[in-house]
Amino acid sequence: MIYLDNSATTPPYPEVVDVVQKAMLSFFGNPSSLHQKGVEAENLLKQARMVSAQALQCKPSEIIFTSGGTEGNNAAIKGVAFQYQSRGKHIITTAVEHPSVYDAAGQLESFGFDVTYLPVDYDGRVSLESLQQAIRPDTILVSIMHVNNELGTIQPIKEIGTFLKLHPRILFHVDAVQSFGKVPFKMKDWGIDLLTLSAHKFHGPRGVGILAKREGVTLHPLLAGG
């Protein structure tokens, strides 16, 4: 069989399966425990965080592991909204985002937030001009995906990030689930505050994702305790 649906999900590499199996069998300890198995698990977790940070050119402390893109997007969007609502309750996104962004924004509207959905052109591309016109004094977040999962459209993230540097009180979230490993980006240089990844899109295990959060950004937690 020839598999041609890598845009939806990728088969895990055999070496990934081997590493995951080894981790499940040998590093099963609670990383918060002080015994040997706990320390071994903590060291493996630190190593994973270090490798992830190197790939994204950020600090290990800026890496948050999630269950995938949906959790990462919800944690970023709702986390910013509830944490910074004292600054304002206006959020900007586009009309062609992944449902985990689009529906999260819609859910926030039911909590009294105002969401602007930017239109796109024939190719599914958002214009910097439309974003500039949508900015308001109460805008706290802009969330735009890097590569569209349905169309393959590459959004002008670098230009948008450069513009948003002029508005330091507005945080910039990028869903890079579809682009990581395929279309280059630079989180720091492009002014991205929050970045979402999902391992199943680049031959990794299912149920594993990353939310990279710039140092200094605080998120209201989705879940309490644990």
Task: Describe the protein.
The chain is built from six helices and seven strands, in the order H-H-E-H-E-H-E-H-E-H-E-E-E. The chain is an alpha/beta fold and 226 residues long. The protein folds into two domains: 45 residues, no CATH class; 153 residues, Type I PLP-dependent aspartate aminotransferase-like (Major domain) (Aspartate Aminotransferase, domain 2, 3-Layer(aba) Sandwich), CATH 3.40.640.10. Helix 3 packs parallel to helix 4. GO terms for molecular function: cysteine desulfurase activity; iron-sulfur cluster binding; metal ion binding. InterPro entries: Aminotrans_V_dom (IPR000192), Aminotrans_V_PyrdxlP_BS (IPR020578), PyrdxlP-dep_Trfase (IPR015424), PyrdxlP-dep_Trfase_major (IPR015421). Belongs to the class-V pyridoxal-phosphate-dependent aminotransferase family. NifS/IscS subfamily. Keywords: Iron, Iron-sulfur, Metal-binding, Pyridoxal phosphate.
| CATH hierarchy class name of the largest domain | Alpha Beta
The proportion of residues forming helix, as a percent range, comes to 25-40%
Calculate the mean pLDDT score and round it. Answer: 97
Shape: globular
Strand-residue proportion: 15-25%
Radius of gyration, CA atoms, in whole angstroms: 18 Å
Please identify which CATH superfamily of the largest domain we are dealing with.
Type I PLP-dependent aspartate aminotransferase-like (Major domain)
Biggest sheet: strand arrangement: 1-7-6-5-4-2-3
**What's the count of strands?**
7
Q: Could you give a short account of the major beta sheet?
A: 7 strands, mixed
**Coarse structural class:** alpha/beta
Total DSSP helices: 6
The figure for the number of domains is 2
CATH level 3 topology of the largest domain = Aspartate Aminotransferase, domain 2
Cofactor: pyridoxal 5'-phosphate
Protein name: Cysteine desulfurase
Keywords: Iron, Iron-sulfur, Metal-binding, Pyridoxal phosphate
Family: Belongs to the class-V pyridoxal-phosphate-dependent aminotransferase family. NifS/IscS subfamily.
